[in-house]
Specification:
alpha/beta, globular, 2 helices
Length: about 80
């Protein structure tokens, strides 16, 4: 079975941190965390990117051909 690669958008948020910890603990999934301000975490690769900038996303994410899963949890703005 081929190794899987999970891309977690918003990996510094509550849901993203939980998913990152879960997958890195499994040991059989490569994890790529995406966030505006990445944090240091053992066992995963980080990409600093603003997901609201379409051009930057195309440039920074286009080469990720090995990604097999994408996780993104959209939050609600607090007003």
């Amino acid at each position: 079975m081929a190794r899987e690669t999970a891309l977690i958008a918003g990996a510094t948020g509550l849901v993203g941190r939980t998913l990152s910890a879960y997958f890195t603990a499994q040991g059989n999934v490569d994890v790529i965390g995406v966030a505006r301000r990445p944090q240091s975490s053992a066992g995963m690769r980080w990409i600093a990117i603003d997901l609201t900038n379409a051009g930057e996303c195309r440039r920074r994410l286009a080469s990720l051909a090995d990604v097999t899963q994408v996780y993104y949890e959209i939050g609600r703005a607090h007003v």
